[in-house]
Amino acid sequence: MNINKITVFGAGIWGSVIAQHLAKNGYKVSLWEYNQQLLGVLKTIGRHPNIPNFKIHDNIALTGDVAEAVQDTDMIVFVISSKAIRAFCREQLKPLLNGKVLPVVSASKGIEDKSFKTICEIIEEELPQLKDKVLAFTGPSFALEVAQNVPTKIMLAGKDAVLVDEIRQVFDSDPIIIVPSSDRRGAEYGGAIKNVLAIGCGVIDGIRDGANSKAALITQALEEMNDIIVSQGGQNSTVYSLAGFGDAILTGMSAISRNRRLGEKLGAGLSLEEAQKEVGTIAEGVNSVQSVYDISCKNNLNTPIIHAIWQIVCQGARPHALLQAMGFVNRGDK
Length: 334
Known about the structure:
This protein has about 325 residues and is α/β, with parallel strands linked by helices.
């Protein structure tokens, strides 16, 4: 496969770091951003305002025009909000690609409400010529650490093993090592569920109940993740891979995790709107809570942790509902 130009949709922190990584690997990168204010800053100062010491590589061309971004492109990487991807593919990409077949990598995480489709499945549904050409890029990978050259392993999951190996070579260079997988559905579900669980970890931090409680939460939550992933056709081994256990540990334990920080604000008593305002950037776990909860209910799964997180995020329940879901039935608000 001959890849020269790569389009990255989304110039947030992760999108910009991925674009920078690909540019350093020698590819021409078109980095698209819908937020005109951010795009203007990037173009004006040549640096990302939210990434320390980040000078935009000479191989990166910044644009706010979708047609310009995909012109003569050989590969697309999605790093935009999961909620926006279906409409983006249908309304903007479909007429521009006009049936063109090319590999697509999704670094966006989430499960669609009601349909329970993964991001890769949504892309393939809206752009049917890309069936089996869409890969999931997921795992324990804080963008700021990748930008600082911290060694990182990321899972690349897809149905076509040959394509997975070809795209692995595009990404696989210091500081990133790519681990291939054939379980795309399991990997994507793991990437969405771990964001929900990270909110729960943050709630424990906000309540200030300590590391003991959080370790118990993660242990119980991984059992629930396993049941959900397997119920949706994913593999048990994926739960204990980078896409499941590895990513859950990272996002649930680290102070810089957006989802964990959002949960911490909720645990401290803030409303969802107040918590989102204080965190500032998008916490994708919020977009996944309802769909993960609905999947559990539809399949009659016993997932008290997921249920409690849903109550806190979507129903405004008090944070101690999570401790009660863990079996601390007499645990009242402090």
